[in-house]
Design a protein that fits this description.
The structure is a single chain. The protein is an alpha/beta fold and 171 residues long. The chain has a single domain, classed as Rossmann fold. The chain has 9 helices and 5 strands. It has a 5-stranded parallel sheet. Helix 6 links the parallel strand 4 and strand 5. Helix 1 packs across helix 8. The longest helix is centred in the middle third of the chain and has 13 residues.
Length: 171
Amino acid sequence: MPETERIVIDTAPLISLVAALGDLKVLQSLYSQVLVPFEVCQEILAGGSSGFAVAEFETADWLQRWSNPLEISPSLLIPSLDRGEASVIQLAINEKVQTVCIDETVGRRVAKSNGLLVTGSIAILLRAKKEGGSFSMQEAIQRMRNRRIRLSEKLVNFALSQAGESDRSLI
């Protein structure tokens, strides 16, 4: 779990954190700067069919949103990497931010191969819990699953164990 002051974040973790906790305040409490590339802003604001997380994203006025598309390196424009993930990696490189928050496996792999530290939504929840967060990890995970956010059993068990909640059973 990288602990840095600045982070660039992808769409899936933003949605996951809203699902887990109802807002994005956890990011504000853990990081001095949370950077969001233009491409990620567009994905969030598109909102899918339900518009989930749009209001929470818009009210988080402390997020540093890029207002213009990034020029993404051709080496990041690979078919298995979506534009949001590529923009997160590119912005981190451009702004010399050492940590990115990406949940998808391919994006995490590409970020690491570009010398970046990687965290994800569950790691952010664990860090918040470690730093005194008063939420139930089990309930946060259940809310994420209720939103159809896929989490492996291995990751869920790890998160519950690290949060000291491994004796509970998930519904």
